[in-house]
């Protein structure tokens, strides 16, 4: 187990009708001008009308940006930052899922600098950010309490991340009922993303992390069990409670701070969603099993066998752990297939692709990644090949 310092300022307000506590939370913060960031779906559901009513009743000034789309871009961020500056915004409220929240985080950082917010995605240190609050409507990204945000550059099609405790939301209002308007596909995409966040922490070279191993395994098992209910019975609010809480636990890093992590599969998927604008969770359903199939044969098959045993109750073959590992991967793919997730490029909607181009877009330039298993360009090429052909 590694040494660590863990910090989270996020206050969780969880439960049915919890969004009605918005005014109470905002009054405590004493902000003067709020920017509300949301997508058209939050408006159609009537949630934004409720938010506006609460703000009006509490005499809180606000402006709105309703142009959020999947995979937020630099153009959206620049537009939001300009709007916020013109209106002296001192607090940002994201209403939605990962896209709305990540855009809010980009704006929070951009408002506090004179230069280009994209510079922070290229490595510039974040020193200050406007505070953020969240009303969560999609259990998926965990961005409601994470120190991370993702943004796509319109010009270069690079999809990059920032990380800082300064962009952790100060509160996250989590009402599972707000996820009941989602389609089965959206719910399944969120479930896949939650599991991926767990697995990217699970596959580690750090030893003696049995406690957090078992926490990760428990979250994955619960999400698989409750996920099936939520996908096929959208009115099952109890399953949605479990999934929503799992989404935060999977990515607020409380179960990953003691270990080395591996985010290579996320980076490989970011290339796909930046270029083809596919749903991130669906992209992870294609990439992660491909990564597992490739890496299990290269490095620590025992780790994959442990996953198979503890998550899917497959007996470990100690003489040939790779056999157990592959059986576990098959079971994972079976689950993804059951909840109607894609397992290859064609099912993801990508029919015209150039694997060499995808490799180049990872910008390794002859180098290697870090993590559980370091990937070079040849490794990435093989993973994309598996992803393009899996279960065809």
UniProtKB/TrEMBL annotation:
Keywords: Oxidoreductase. The keyword DNA-binding does not apply. Residues 188-386 form the Fe-containing alcohol dehydrogenase-like C-terminal domain. InterPro entries: ADH_Fe/GldA, ADH_Fe_C, BDH-like. It holds the Pfam family ADH_Fe_C. Residues 9-176 form the Alcohol dehydrogenase iron-type/glycerol dehydrogenase GldA domain. One of its GO terms (cellular component) is cytosol. This is Iron-containing alcohol dehydrogenase. The lineage of its organism: Bacteria, Bacillati, Bacillota, Tissierellia, Tissierellales.
